[in-house]
Amino acid sequence: MWYHILREARRYVLSAAGKRQRRNRENTKTSKKNNVVSEMREEYDFSGGVRGKHFEAYRKGHTVKIGKRDGSVEVHYFTQEDGAVMLDPHVKKHFPDSKSVNRALRSLITAH
Question: Where are the beta strands (DSSP E) in the chain?
Answer without folding.
Answer: 29-30, 37-38, 62-67, 73-78
